Please model this.
Amino acid sequence: MIHEKYINLSTSELVNMALARKEGVLAANQALTVTTGARTGRSPKDRFIVKDALTENTVDWNTINQPIDSEKFSALWQRASDYLQTKDCAFVSYLKVGAEEKFALTVKVETELAWHNLFTHILFIRPEEPIQADQPNQWTLLCAPGFKTDPTRDGVNSDAAVILHFSERRILICGTYYAGEMKKAMFSVLNFLLPQHEILPMHCAANVGKDGKTALFFGLSGTGKTTLSADPERYLIGDDEHGWGQEGVFNFEGGCYAKCIDLSREREPVIWDAIRYGSVMENVVLNSKTKEPDYSDISLTQNTRAAYPREFIPLRVEANKANQPHAVLFLTCDLYGVLPPVARLTKEQAAYYFLSGYTALVGSTEVGQGTDIKQTFSTCFGAPFFPRAARVYADLLMKRLENWDAQVYLVNTGWTGGAHGQGGSRFSIPTTRAVVRAIVNGDLRDAQYDVLPGFNLAIPKKVEGVDTTVLNPRHAWGNEQAYDKCAKLLIEKFTENFKKFDVSHSIRHAGPHID
Model:
């Protein structure tokens, strides 16, 4: 069998190869539409980091950052490479991650499938001058989804594995067709490397107003990062991964990866229009006759996705980076319905809620998560992607907030008037957009505030376009005793979760307390 490597194919060439190889079909909107089989999200139990002299004392080893030895990795890499050699072809692209040139990494992406290469062609940054051969200090990402691992032989947990080798600058992904693993693997690499350069890596979206003021949107998948940052009135930097350093904010990526569940042109026009030829839809069900996507159909997964390049966003920051942030938003989806739609945080409160990362798991982003919505605490609003100890990232956040005049806000995109499934309702997108508009326009900087008991949060008395009843969650419930009972439950969960952090008294005291 002749094994051919296709190097640096264009978007149209990769689409045509994927169609010819029956890897996917074109939807009515001309997006390449694919399915990923059993794994429709990330597999956190299958993610490993090679434990060696470089990582032994720098990685926070836990159930997320699982160790594997270099010998196991080398043997598995060789088997995966041999497997690819048995195929008629493979696809190679030389790309970059990191829009700040001083910290950018070159990545050689070698994939079994054309659509996987197209995905990285969309999500990573395409060099201005094409790179044709291996570079010094480049990373290599090898993706062989058809190669299944053997737990007994390979020292892994299932028939799939995602392994990062920092010393050798190599990433191996096998046994899973879910493309998000590739993007998040490189995110984890930057999250390990950048702190030593005093750069805070962030699981956040970012955009810029016409006044030049930058806003950051932290949050787990499903809390509104992509939706809220894709604002028709503001310029997008990126929707998911950024760095914050002395010179400002920069994107890690060259594309966006949006959730498609219940997507509509009316509510999310920017994302709707971006899904077209040159984009990829994962696990989106198409009408069998018209090929129109049915974004409400979750028969394959709630985690339906679309990947599209930044160029498909009309209002975007061309440089892919911007000035120091003026506003920082922590997006949290509160299932208890006891947090306000918006609260202004002190620097100590910002550190507390950043470390806590309280939110809900929405839309089955991870394998095995199921369809139920569950409350969670995800440190730094992205625990699965941060190899170092949480304190490293929290200290960098505090340093940035002390050096720059960025105001932090806690924004609840979850429930109000009651808990999830117990009479509460989720904040509408127009309500949350009104809150965001007030923040990014600076209206809430000098607003009048009340204090929410228990949480000790500063909540504005008025927000343009928002019913004043919902600004204070105790009032929104109608029954303040019922609210207090539910609030007490959440405060206890915050307190219990925060016991694991070794922080100053001022940060610990900034959290919620039972009066």
The chain has 14 helices and 30 strands. The CA atoms of residues 191 and 201 lie 5 Å apart. The mean pLDDT is 94.
